[in-house]
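Lab meeting tomorrow. Please check the following:
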Amino acid sequence: MTIKINKDPAAVALQERWENLRSHKRIISRVKLLVEWENAGAKERANAVTVDVSHSGCMAVVGADIPLRKRVRLVQQETGRKADAKSSGAATKRGMRDSNC
């Protein structure tokens, strides 16, 4: 249920648009990960921590610059569980999209 406080039609339309863009609810979850990817044939690694997760992916803050839409592997070091993903963000927050994040 969404409570709409602002009656401005443009604000209401924007809010409805964002609600429709989210395909799944997000859950705040902090999980330490290792992110692995290849760069010019060399294997790169960086530490990361998730910010939130959903059924369709997660957002993680990564300690390195990863190119946009780069295929990466997420490794949960405590369990050894791995999942393939694709980077979808840049700058100070880097999003990782993956169905098994």
Summary: Residues 90-101 have pLDDT under 50 and may be disordered. The chain has one domain: 26-97. The beta strands are 27-28, 32-39, 42-54, 57-62, 71-76, 81-87, 94-97.
